[in-house]
Task: inverse folding
């Protein structure tokens, strides 16, 4: 199949300028995209939650309210465009924290009314997946490809048939992979968000030091809550004997936990690749920043002859560039939102463009 980038370039006589807004969790972000090139990508990360061991929804929405205008303003300045240059406004309608989503959604709707420009409502995970098409000269996956989406709220195996035809093959039945990283990090006394810290410590540890239980889930679905419980009970037992056990073995615990999470992910990913014969394999979402995951995908890809696609770090965790890119594909497909749509904390994956 020819590259989608070539097709889109031919289709677009005038490249639309899209302003995108992302406020689903604890990052207030705005980006400007022209055709498939990012002109600006600004993220304001809320650090206030660190002291509480997790995101506090009320504090998150207040911080979004304070940041949204300066963040959008900074994006417009960096892109060197005026409000009048914008052709459409894309925003994350869901899923996420309601109070956080409402800030971005209200801002996008108000701007759309004021400028008389169309709204594009984007599903957050759609954005994570389509971030692979942001044009920075890198190789892009051919359709259909498989995307393993791993974030703080989602863990899914998706077959991407086209930018607007995505088929979810498997999902977590309990915790998401990022949630498992964060919850286990909390058990061993690391601050929120624990995922990047577990990643860092794991690099110094032995992944075979400790064995934790793995779920027995059929098909392509995942489960991570049993791992969390297995780590908790193991550490309770060990610290009863040696109160300094965690402190002495932190790196080995992190390496063993990370290895188990990767084993769970790759068991299902490899099964789906085997069953579908698809060889273009991508990862997306915050956990795709994980060093061990990136390395394992490259190693497995080399061994099995896969073409692997790993997002650059800036497009792994939450950002508005990915919302702009998804917005651009929806714009090209003529799929727009409207003023009567509100934010949805549990927005189903395909609903935003099938309704
Ligand atoms: O996509 P994202 O920024 O927000 C959501 O949509 O949830 O993902 C955040 C998640 C958090 O659970 C965070 O701990 C995890 O991604 N994460 C990592 C790493 N960087 C971020 N997990 C493991 N290793 C990392 N390097
Ligand atoms: Zn995300």
Result:
């Amino acid at each position: 199949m020819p590259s989608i980038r070539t097709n889109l370039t031919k289709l677009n006589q005038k490249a639309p300028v899209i302003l995108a807004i992302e406020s689903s969790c604890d990052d207030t972000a705005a980006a400007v995209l022209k055709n498939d090139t990012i002109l600006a990508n600004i993220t304001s990360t809320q650090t206030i939650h660190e002291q509480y061991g997790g995101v506090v929804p009320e504090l998150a929405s207040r911080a979004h309210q304070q940041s949204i205008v300066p963040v959008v303003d900074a994006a417009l300045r960096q892109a060197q465009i005026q409000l009048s240059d914008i052709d459409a406004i894309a925003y994350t309608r869901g899923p996420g924290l309601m109070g956080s989503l409402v800030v971005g959604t209200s801002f996008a709707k108000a701007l759309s009314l004021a400028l008389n420009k169309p709204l594009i409502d984007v599903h957050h995970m759609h954005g994570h997946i389509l971030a692979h098409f942001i044009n920075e000269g890198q190789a892009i996956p051919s359709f259909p490809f498989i995307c393993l989406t791993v974030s703080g709220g989602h863990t899914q195996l998706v077959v991407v048939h086209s930018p607007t035809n995505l088929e979810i093959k498997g999902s977590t039945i309990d915790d998401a992979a990022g949630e498992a990283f964060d919850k286990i990090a909390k058990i061993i006394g690391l601050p929120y968000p624990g995922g990047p810290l577990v990643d860092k410590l794991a690099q110094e540890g032995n992944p075979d030091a400790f064995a934790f239980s793995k779920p027995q889930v059929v098909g392509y679905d995942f489960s991570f809550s049993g791992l969390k419980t297995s780590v908790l009970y193991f550490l309770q037992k060990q610290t009863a004997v040696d109160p300094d056990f965690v402190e002495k073995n932190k790196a080995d615990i992190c390496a063993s936990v990370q290895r188990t999470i990767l084993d769970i992910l790759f068991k299902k990913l490899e099964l789906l690749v085997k069953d579908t014969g698809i060889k273009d394999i991508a990862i997306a979402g915050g956990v795709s920043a994980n060093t061990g995951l990136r390395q394992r995908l490259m190693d497995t890809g080399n061994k099995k002859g896969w073409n692997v696609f790993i997002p650059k770090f800036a497009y792994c965790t939450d950002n508005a560039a990915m919302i702009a890119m998804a917005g651009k594909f929806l714009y090209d497909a003529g799929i727009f939102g409207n003023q009567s749509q509100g934010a949805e904390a549990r927005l189903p994956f395909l609903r935003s463009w099938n309704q």
Q: What stands out?
A: Residues 124, 128, 151, 285-286, 318 surround zinc ion (ligand 2) (CB under 6 Å). The beta strands are 17-22, 27-34, 37-45, 88-94, 119-123, 145-150, 155-162, 165-171, 280-284, 307-309.
